[in-house]
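Ticket #4471: structure export looks truncated?
Reporter: QA, pipeline team
Priority: medium

Steps to reproduce: submit the single chain below to the structure queue and open the exported record.
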Amino acid sequence: MQARLVSTVELAEGVNHFVFEAVGVEHLEFTPGQFVSLHEDVEGKQITRAYSLASAPFGNNRFELCLNRVDGGRLSPHLFAMRPGDMIAMSEPMGTFVLREPPKDSILIATGTGITPFRSFLQAYLPQGAARFTLLFGVRHESHILYRTEFEELASRHPQFRFWPTLSRPGENWTGRTGHVQAHLEEAISGRKDIDFYLCGLKQMVDDVRATLKGMGFERKQIRYEKYD
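Actual output as written to the record:
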């Protein structure tokens, strides 16, 4: 299968939002939270990287990605150099990092581009009004609160959604939450035991939050995660 780049937008320094279309496919079917793998020959070797989908299914052949440009990386510099109309090989969507059915009230915890599958979750499930979501999003600097305006607008339209960005290196004008996401877990949980957790981001964050939640008595089945270095 081939993907054609439709457009790209810089979200923050070193982070781009990509819109692709699957060539020859009328409807690209996937479940929010899944990923696609992209393949490219680089210096005579086929490089494959898996990227979480940053959008809910549109009912057409388009999909969106949110990617870091990794200096010295094998594939991301190639993707950042692509122009609209350029093609790249792709796999069909797959993966099990999806909401449990039926959806329960959930806390979504992300760092960096780990926000990507949660954007897909929220686009798909918030309009259904079936569950309450808190998105706890940790980044270093305010400039890297990815999709900030979109999430703030979702929170204003959907009372069952809370958006809690937190900065580990806040500027002097920042008045929101600070520190790491772990510091705000107890406030988000508010004493409840009947909620699910979805974690996506750096390995240290995911491991720390999992250990904290297990120490608080939450069961393994209530915690789903994806992590990266």
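Status: closed, not a bug. The export was complete when the record was re-opened. Leaving a note from the reviewer for reference: The first strand starts at residue 2 and ends at 12.
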